[in-house]
Design goal:
The protein has about 500 residues and is of the alpha/beta class. It is built from 20 helices and 13 strands. The chain is globular.
């Protein structure tokens, strides 16, 4: 290897991973790829002629990994190749046959293995990036299953910033990867923190305007009436929230399909209306008023187009139409969600303090991202772009090529701010940023850790979370913090379980 002196924690983790199938839990930006590179070198030396396979969930992420390997290995050390589904099958077979280190997406490898295009018998190391996805029927699990059945000299390395706080899910990930060791570090770990810069945390509370409260009362009346009717029909028991309602919708659909139960059919309509109003309430409390207006206008259009009986019934409700009128009146007076203005103030102050700053604003919804970018670009010195996934929704969506162009513009300084949805959370090669702003808190510990990991790596950084008082923002903020604390306790619990369990044949294979 060239230009590499591993950090103390990287060396320790490597020593563990050398002899054991290992799950590495390490915050974003602390060099997980370098650990996989060190292990790849060790396995090729130990098993000359063998192959290394590294899978990552997206092509840009796989490209990032191959670039890191090429940059840090001597030119003739090994033949490295990247392929995904866009490469013809015959060519993929040739590449897999000749290459010594292969980088790909799990979908592509899983499809090839199912088709019997090649086998993994010569792969001496399988690296699974974003290993928290190694669950259920995701392609990662199929790749790992083939590997465990076919490879002669097995070693598995799972990499993640966060496997989540649910003990059963962490156990499943470890089971799928045949993990016999878990190596975990936080920003506070003794062998990590000396390499990190300070990260200033700020929770910024904004008021929930009285005019918004009045709209919430109208929408809540609709929601409560639908929920009450579901209860009176003995279809809904316990809490009524987006998750329970979506589960109920699925079970009612199955019930109606199997028995033509008309109570279930009416229940499906009521549930659909409750879900739509629940979403409207979320937009009102946590996003933008313009986004809410566009969403409700969309429902009116769906009713005109007779898309569903549920929507036709919903838009006839007096409270729905009263809410529409109130929203239009507020927007006519240039009244928006106070978060938009607060976000602009924070960004302006950041650039005043540090002119060459780079900022990422994270938000859940594309509509919000578009509104935020429009506002930020009115701030002197701000050059902001949206950063979306590939899915084409409401004339938005970026191809992988376009995503790379946005990242390159940020890295080069052509733009200095991106407003990203969840696509910006996982592993992409985004430059060090001065500040990360959460437009809304998110209840997921995994996503919170990934977002926060974008700053305070090479230079001091800020993490700012906007919280609207007296709304679900408050609940989500405390939920993600609690889940993050629980996550590390969960990892310790599962690690102890793995150490105490009786040794199996697979364990002896993994330490061989």
């Amino acid at each position: 290897m060239i230009n590499i002196t591993p950090r103390e924690y990287q060396q320790k983790i490597f020593e563990t991973a050398k002899d054991n199938n290992t799950l590495v839990v390490l915050p974003t930006g602390l060099g997980k790829t370098l650990i996989s590179l060190m292990l790849a070198v060790e396995r090729i030396k130990k098993y000359p002629g063998s192959k290394i396979l590294m899978v990552a969930p997206t092509r840009p992420l796989a490209e990032q990994h191959i670039n890191t390997f090429k940059k840090n290995l001597p030119e003739l050390f090994a033949e490295m190749e990247l392929f995904t589904g866009s490469v013809p099958a015959k060519k993929r077979v040739d590449i897999f046959d000749k290459a010594e280190i292969v980088f790909s997406t799990p979908q592509c490898i899983a499809n090839d293995l199912r088709a019997g295009l090649y086998k993994m018998e010569d792969v001496s190391l399988l690296v699974v990036d974003e290993a928290h996805r190694c669950l259920k029927n995701y392609d990662y699990t199929h790749v790992v299953d083939f590997y465990k059945r076919q490879a002669k000299n097995q070693r598995i390395l799972g990499l993640t910033a966060s496997p989540g706080s649910d003990a059963e899910i962490v156990r499943q990930i470890c089971k799928h990867l045949d993990v016999s060791e878990i190596e975990v570090r936080t920003r506070e770990s003794e062998d990590v923190k000396k390499y990190l810069q300070s990260r200033e945390f700020q929770k910024v509370e904004v008021p929930f305007p009285q005019e918004f409260v009045e709209i919430r009362v109208l929408l809540k009346r609709i929601f409560d009436s639908k929920v009450d009717e579901l209860r009176s029909r003995n279809l809904l028991f316990g809490a009524a929230n987006k998750i329970t309602l979506l589960k109920l919708q699925n079970s009612l659909a199955m019930r109606y399909t199997n028995s033509r139960d008309f109570n279930a059919m009416n229940g499906m309509s009521l549930t659909a209306q409750a879900i739509k109003i629940s979403h409207a309430l979320e937009l009102l409390e946590t996003q933008t008023l313009l986004g809410l207006k566009n969403y409700m206008d969309g429902l009116i259009q769906q009713a005109k187009d007779k898309k569903s009986r549920a929507v036709q019934n919903l838009v006839k409700i007096n409270e729905f139409n009263a809410a529409i009128i109130s929203i239009a009146q507020l927007l006519a007076k240039k009244i928006e969600h106070p978060k938009i203005e607060e976000c602009a103030v924070i960004v302006e102050e950041q650039f005043r303090d540090k002119q060459d700053s780079k900022i990422i604003v994270f938000t859940q919804f594309r509509e919000s991202a578009l509104n935020i970018v429009n506002r930020l670009n009115k701030v002197d010195g701000v050059r902001a772009l949206t950063f979306f996934g590939q899915a084409k929704k409401n004339n938005t969506g970026l191809s992988q090529k376009e995503q790379k162009e946005v990242i390159d513009k940020l890295n080069s300084g052509e733009i200095n701010c991106i407003v990203a949805t969840s696509i910006g959370e996982e592993g992409l090669d985004i430059a060090e940023v001065s500040a990360v702003i959460f437009y809304e808190p998110i209840p997921s510990a995994i996503r919170k850790i990934q977002r926060a990991g974008r700053t305070a790596r090479l230079a001091p950084g800020k993490l700012i979370i906007l919280v609207t008082k007296d709304t679900r923002d408050v609940i989500h903020h405390y939920a993600s913090s609690a889940r993050e604390r629980k996550m590390y306790k969960t990892i310790e619990l599962v690690r102890d379980e793995i150490k105490k369990r009786p040794k199996t044949l697979e364990d002896f294979k993994s330490t061989g």
